[in-house]
Amino acid sequence: MYPPSEAARRSGFSLDTLRYYEKIGLLSGVGRTSGGRRFFTDDDLSWLVIFRCLRDTGMPIAEMCRYAELSREGEHTVAARQELLEQHAARVEEQLTLLQRQYAHLREKIRFYQGLTGATPAP
């Protein structure tokens, strides 16, 4: 069992984000002590790892909620979960391609300015 502060530290999410995820049902079944204080389990932390990945790669909250909902419904939703993740991965791949092109453009521009200033190109 982990107190909210430890779950926040381990997941990289703020306490406010953890509360929000619980409020909207993204995190479900967060335990409470007899005194009413929230606590998180290893299972909760595993959920937070996938939520971190999905959020960091730009998945909208509504899709994250759909993924969590499908997961909780059981094994018969495996194909739907896979499809949701494949669609998201395709969007991430498109974004990566765009970023790689834009990064190359930035490096070209930097080399151009280095040529003007006589600066030594960075590796």
What's the helix and strand layout?
Blueprint: H1 4-11, H2 15-23, E1 31-32, E2 38-39, H3 42-56, H4 61-73, H5 78-117
Antiparallel strand pairs: 1-2
Could you give a short description of this structure?
By secondary structure, the protein is mainly alpha-helical.
Could you explain how this protein is built, in words?
It is a single chain. The protein is mainly alpha-helical and 123 residues long. Helix content is 69%, strand content 3%. The protein contains 5 helices and 2 strands, in the order H-H-E-E-H-H-H. Strands 1-2 form a two-stranded antiparallel sheet. A hairpin with a 5-residue loop joins strand 1 and strand 2. Helix 4 (61-73) packs antiparallel against helix 5. The longest helix is centred in the last third of the chain and has 40 residues, at 78-117. The N and C termini lie far apart (47 Å). The model has no long low-confidence stretch (mean pLDDT 93).
**Strand elements, count:** 2
- Strand portion: under 5%
Roughly how many Å apart are the termini?
47 Å
Indicate the mean pLDDT. 93
Number of helices: 5
Q: By helix and strand content, what is the structural category?
A: mainly alpha
> Runs with pLDDT <50, length 5+?
none
**Sequence of secondary-structure elements:** HHEEHHH
How would a crystallographer describe the biggest sheet? Answer: 2 strands, antiparallel
Supply Rg.
21 Å
Widest sheet, order of strands: 1-2
Q: Which overall shape is indicated by the principal axes computed on the Cα atoms?
A: elongated
Helix content: 55-70%
